């Protein structure tokens, strides 16, 4: 059985030197660190903060002064008012992907048929560029980087066999680690199950996991997740205070693609301090990754919440397939009968 101490020292699958994405795509690495409490001498003195009320709620907006009342406002082409035209436009422009149960209604966006025609060459260029990206073209010339997001969803698309192997191995490692945490094989140093995840990261290193947690996590996930995604000291204190005694069974995940973002480091230092103040050690391990919601950065928090990440990837691959169209027209949309 994997133990926490072995994990903290050198778990082979999580060893930075064996990172999949680090050596795969470019030297710039995303670092994801895991930290665990080492003791449960919990004597927190932090108190919950009283939520403040937004001042905007106290000042009613004057809705009589909308843009519609401004003189000389140019008529926005493409915004139909007639109910029949609106319905036809809806029927023409509603996108539906039956397998995914996805609907996208762009009919209320104020573009005209002429605009769509004018943009056609640019659409075609975008489709071509996407095709090249999937094949491994350099998308970031400064850093000589390929963009492998599509391969994460379907590793057989990776342009080199070694990339495929590395992607598959990383996915296995994430699944294995998450399974062991969720099943309780990997425990806190006191032999308790982990109950909480605290994700520390900012901007792109927080938004994907936040979105997935909101959209896909079960109502009662095996581990609940919370985020420190800004530098607001009161907000950080609030997150830590809300953990209460469960700080002792919290798995901290620190995400940063550069590894040098001051805000993320501040968050990490604050969490470390909270551990220290409550008598908990903050032992670290880490692995280097590429930044993408569909890389370990997003997959690990998702798997720890009980989300079937292989299914999530399969769904994304189906959406990728749908996006490989080269047609932007009402003909490519499914009409409402
Ligand atoms: O992932 P890193 O390197 O910590 O960088 C985070 C920063 O990168 C961005 O995600 C994109 O530039 C910002 O929103 C954020 O401040």
UniProtKB/TrEMBL annotation:
GO cellular component terms, semicolon-separated: cytosol
Ranges where the record places region Disordered: 1-20
Superkingdom classification of source: Eukaryota
Statement: the UniProt record of this protein carries the keyword Membrane: no
GO MF annotations in UniProt: carbohydrate derivative binding; glucose-6-phosphate isomerase activity; monosaccharide binding
Keyword entries, A-Z: Gluconeogenesis, Glycolysis, Isomerase
A GO biological-process term: glycolytic process
Low complexity bias: start-end ranges: 1-14
Keyword hit for Nucleotide-binding: no
Name recorded for this polypeptide: GLUCOSE-6-PHOSPHATE ISOMERASE
Species, as recorded: Salix koriyanagi
């Amino acid at each position: 059985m994997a133990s926490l101490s072995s994990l903290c020292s050198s778990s082979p699958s999580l060893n930075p030197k064996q990172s999949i994405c680090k050596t795969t795509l470019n030297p710039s690495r995303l670092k994801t660190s895991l930290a665990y409490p080492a003791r449960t001498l919990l004597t927190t003195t932090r108190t919950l903060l009283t939520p403040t009320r937004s001042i905007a709620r106290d000042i009613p907006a004057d809705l009589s002064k909308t843009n519609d009342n401004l003189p000389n406002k140019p008529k926005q082409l493409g915004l139909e008012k007639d109910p029949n035209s609106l319905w036809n436009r809806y029927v023409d422009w509603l996108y539906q992907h039956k397998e995914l149960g996805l609907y996208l209604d762009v009919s209320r966006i104020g573009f005209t048929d002429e605009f769509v025609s004018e943009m056609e060459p640019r659409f075609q260029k975008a489709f071509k560029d996407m095709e090249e990206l999937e094949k491994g073209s350099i998308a970031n010339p400064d850093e000589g980087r390929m963009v492998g997001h599509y391969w994460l969803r379907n590793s057989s698309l990776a342009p080199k066999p070694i990339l495929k192997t590395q992607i598959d191995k990383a996915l296995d490692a994430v699944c294995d680690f998450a399974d062991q945490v969720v099943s309780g094989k990997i425990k806190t140093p006191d032999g308790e199950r982990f109950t909480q995840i605290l994700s520390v990261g900012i901007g792109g290193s927080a938004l994907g996991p936040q979105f997935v947690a909101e959209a896909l996590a079960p109502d009662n996930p095996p581990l609940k997740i919370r985020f420190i995604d800004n530098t607001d000291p009161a907000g950080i204190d609030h997150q830590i205070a809300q953990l209460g005694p469960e700080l002792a069974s919290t798995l901290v995940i620190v995400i940063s693609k550069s590894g040098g973002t001051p805000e993320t480091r501040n968050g990490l230092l604050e969490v470390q301090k909270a551990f220290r103040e409550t008598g908990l050690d903050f032992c670290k391990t880490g692995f280097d990754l590429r930044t993408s919601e569909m890389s370990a950065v997003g997959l690990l928090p998702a798997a720890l919440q009980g989300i079937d990440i292989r299914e999530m990837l399969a769904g994304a691959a189906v959406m990728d397939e749908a996006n490989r169209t080269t047609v932007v027209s009402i003909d490519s949309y499914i009409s409402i009968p």
